[in-house]
Design goal:
Length: 612
């Protein structure tokens, strides 16, 4: 008990308690209660008396291996409505005490608890400390002369007289029955998105945490990579954001995405949690459809499957953290439905932008990686005489001016007589990056009327190299969209159009794209023991992992000669460089972290070093 409060409490109590005298039957009762799992609960203490009561002391013990006390208060009780002027609570390791005096301040109006049955005088709050697969019961017991200093007894004060157990005060203990909670659940909500090549839509991740308040969670959801692209994982607008998340990490992959959250991660450790609840919105996954679907084609439904041990590097499980324990909730899959759209109008030209970095990753790329941005068209009915393509792209992407090419395109096959392009990568003017491309098929005598043919299949128009800047934010889609009224490096504002029958047509479908930046493993060549330096210890580690099975984090780092195999030659190569002026280990070299420029069959690094 706080020293100052104790002094005031003892002084007031001395005034109120004049002598001990046996009274008629009086009782204090701790009401029985129940809870589930680790759910917090409260129980009331009730007073039955046949006379007015001016104050009381409660001293209650419990099993601290099963229960953790959080509060002892008069708030929400009958005493709070009457008005108590001195309330002193003390939470101890195996018990708690509560001292209450109703009238301690001038003008001493004499408020007291009237005689009656079942008057609530205290609210005691606890949290279970352990989960059990079966129901069990534990006691909340009145204990005299055990808790606080000096030890306190359970008493009531009536007419200035103290009444305790020796005077006939009946103390009725209570019980808490703790039953197993219903199963926790992570559920992916169904969602829909237009299959128009531009739209994206969120699906919500919903948590039912009946075991108790959640201190953190990991979600890993897989999807079909051919049908959908995961654009973003977000906590915006969720209960996770509202309670105050302090640590979050998100990773996007071609076939799924993971998010890990710790709510209370940094000082002052305020203990924020996601309270118990049903279908609480904890995260959002945003998807777009990979293909455009036109009616009367059917909508495309893709499963969104929470799955353990499949998504991530290393693969992650779906877990929630309750009471410091990792719990595995039941998992319920959802779906994302790509909604078929109406066919294009009469001039049903479709212009599509596509970005690709390699055959395996599609539009997923690492920092510094260069890929190809291509433009394709389809139009089953019309011949196209020319086109202007105007594109805006994120400032963390760089289009390599001078790399535009018609190689392998229908334009190269037909023969265009006027081609011009300009790239504006300067975002200091407040604009995005801008690309302007102009193609006219028949621009010179003898004016033979060449055109791009009608086609129901997408045909390549041309392509340009694109590089992901080191400043690009990981796990975020960097947008590339067709946009009108841009001037690039010039002064004339241009827009997207195609020329059909000598007319400029702007009302046609345009499908943008995006680049998603993903983490890339980096390492120092020769740093076999992953201590961020290359020395003799790394040669010893290389030998030990080959001949003694010593575990390592990054096989590529041990491959000192970069021949795709870890053997004795790597140890010799490293020692020759260290002590005999031998050749420097190949890129990324022994001094600076970097990605592996060489493709090989060695396992992916399992270190924490990434380009993000």
């Amino acid at each position: 008990m706080n020293t100052c409060f104790r002094q005031v409490f003892v002084a007031v109590w001395t005034v109120l308690i004049l002598t001990h005298s046996v009274q008629a039957q009086q009782s204090l009762t701790i009401t029985d209660t129940t809870t589930q799992g680790l759910a917090p609960f409260s129980t009331t203490v009730e007073l039955t008396s046949d006379a007015g009561t001016q104050g009381y002391v409660l001293a209650v013990g419990f099993d601290n291996t099963l229960l953790n006390p959080t509060a002892a208060t008069v708030e929400g009780t009958d005493v709070a409505s009457i008005g108590a002027e001195l309330v002193v609570a003390e939470i101890l390791s195996e018990g708690l005490t509560l001292g209450v005096v109703l009238d301690t301040e001038t003008p001493f109006e004499g408020q007291e608890i009237p005689a009656g049955v079942g008057t609530s005088v205290a609210l005691l709050s606890f949290t279970p400390t352990t989960l059990s697969s079966t129901s069990f019961t534990t006691q909340l017991q009145f204990q005299d002369g055990v808790f606080n200093s000096p030890p306190l007894d359970n008493i009531i004060v009536q007419a200035g007289l103290s009444v305790d157990a020796t005077d006939g005060l009946i103390l009725i203990d209570g019980t808490v029955t703790i039953s197993p909670p219903p199963p926790d659940q992570l559920r992916v909500e169904d969602g829909t998105v237009l299959a128009d090549g531009q739209s994206s839509s969120e699906t919500r991740i919903l948590l039912s945490n009946s075991s108790g308040p959640a201190q953190g969670f990991v979600v890993a959801v897989a999807h079909g990579p051919d049908q959908l692209t995961l654009q973003e994982i977000s906590l915006e607008g969720t209960i996770t954001q509202s309670v105050g998340v302090e640590f979050e990490v998100m990773n996007l992959y071609s076939d799924g995405g993971t998010v890990g959250v710790v709510l209370d991660f940094t000082p002052p450790f305020d203990g924020q949690v996601i309270p118990q609840g049903i279908d609480q919105h904890i995260a959002s996954y945003r998807y777009s459809c990979n293909e455009i679907i036109y009616l009367p084609e059917s909508d495309l439904v893709t499963a969104l499957t929470p799955i353990n041990g499949f998504i991530g590097t290393p693969p992650l499980d779906n877990v929630i953290v309750v009471g410091g324990l990792s719990l595995f909730p039941s998992l319920e899959a959802g779906s994302m439905t790509c909604i078929a759209i109406n066919p294009p109008p009469v001039h049903n030209t479709v212009m599509t932008a596509k970005v690709e970095f390699d055959l395996d990753s599609g539009n997923y790329a690492f920092h510094g990686q260069t890929g190809t941005l291509s433009f394709c068209y389809s139009d089953p009915d019309n011949e196209i005489q020319g086109m202007t393509i105007t594109v805006c792209y994120d400032c963390d992407l760089t289009l390599e001016e001078g790399t535009f090419t018609l190689e392998g395109s229908i334009v190269e096959m037909v023969g265009a007589e006027y081609i011009n392009h300009q790239v504006d990568d300067d975002c200091s003017d407040g604009e995005t990056g801008e690309l302007i491309l102009a193609i006219l098929l028949d621009a010179l005598p003898p004016f033979e009327g060449q055109t791009l043919p009608p086609t129901s299949e997408e045909l390549l128009v041309g392509s340009i190299q694109i590089t992901v800047d080191e400043t690009a934010e990981c796990d975020l889609a960097q947008e590339i969209n067709f946009c009108d009224d841009i001037n690039g490096n010039g002064s004339v504002f241009l827009y997207n159009n195609v020329v059909i029958d000598y007319l400029s047509v702007q009302d046609f479908q345009r499908n943008g794209t995006s680049v998603v930046v993903v983490p890339q493993e980096i390492f120092q060549r020769g740093d076999c023991n992953s201590d961020d330096k290359v020395d003799l210890a790394d040669a010893a580690t290389t030998i030990a992992t080959q001949f003694s099975g010593l575990p390592i984090l990054c096989s590529d780092a041990c491959d000192s000669n970069d021949d795709g195999v870890i053997n004795l030659a790597d140890a010799v190569y490293g020692m020759n460089w260290l002590f005999k002026f031998g050749p420097t280990p190949p890129e990324p070299g022994p001094f600076d972290n970097g990605p592996d420029p060489t493709e090989d069959q060695l396992p992916v690094c399992d270190s924490d070093d990434t380009g993000c």
